[in-house]
Amino acid sequence: MTATVVQGFRRYEFSSNVTNFLSTLATEMSTYPYEDVNWKVTYYPKDPYSQSKAYNNQTQTSSGPQGSLTLENLNEPSLFFTLCLNYPYQYGSTSYAQGYQLRCGMNKPASGIEPYPDIALNVGEETNIPFHTSTKTATGVTLNIIYKWTIFPMKEAIFIFGETLNNIGYAYPFRLYLGQLSSYEKEDPAVEGGFVGIFSHAPIESNSEWANNNLYSVGRGVVRTSRNNKKYELYNFCTSAQATSPGSGNRYFISPWHVFQPKEGVRGEFQQMRSIVFKDAKQYPDGSMIDLEGKRYHVFHVNDQQQPSNYKYWIDVSGQIRHIQPYFFDSNTLLGDGQRAILFELQTEVSK
Q1: Contact between residue 160 and residue 102 where contact means Cβ atoms under 8 Å apart
Q2: Least confident of 22-31, 82-91, 125-134, 287-296
Q3: Nearest to residue 331, comparing CAs of 218, 199, 178, 246?
């Protein structure tokens, strides 16, 4: 286990395969003396909602439960997330496992009820997050990919970053933001508490959208409540940090992750996160601190894994083919070289 603590900010690093990811994450963030100060993390190994079913025979169980994880914010009780590990399975004369994926939830279940992915209650809904492309491997075999994980739990959000250590031609570079979002304008009290989202490397799409490249090559996620009070509204997100910063005279280009809905416009941004491309990354190595615009940030260097070139699709738990262009930054390409980094805002002392 590697846990870095800087001014109350924690960063966890570990390696695990996909099937052990959720249980290892819970262990890392709950082990003394590194219990997280912002999030309570609980693992449920036998959660029935994480039990896979064969998509062409819903009564056929293809495996036991894959396990679920809950993230409960200690500062704001309304911030609660469920991650259910699952995978689709074709059942018949010839059976195929189709690849691991996460199903997500945003609401805390009633006492005594196992956590469940309430955003994707029905089989095949559009919010699943795949780990890799479809491979149609033989019965009982799927790519249990090993990732190097880096976890950034913030006050009211958590960012999960994964770079694959094997099966690079198939594995997706994993990115997942869960948490409160910062709005740019004062919102109606009836909806302001609903600006909470889940945004991943897998652009969320519906069954009818896969053929439209403009829809699956842009970052997307889901927000608990839109400004029009629509539950689980789809939102886009983007950052403009591709160009290299000048790197002299204390001048740096830093970019937020803008969160927008085409019918509503830009609503806000990710909380406590910025993106930057250094001209000379040696000035600010990974794990260092940088002061910009009156704020202090923790520096995380991003090694952008190239996206798979031979596959652009995965299969959800309903057997539906989903097309994908994994996306989190504007592009893997950095204009003018340099090193991409993510800046996480640190607490600063307030003088009286």
Answers
A1: no
A2: 125-134
A3: 218
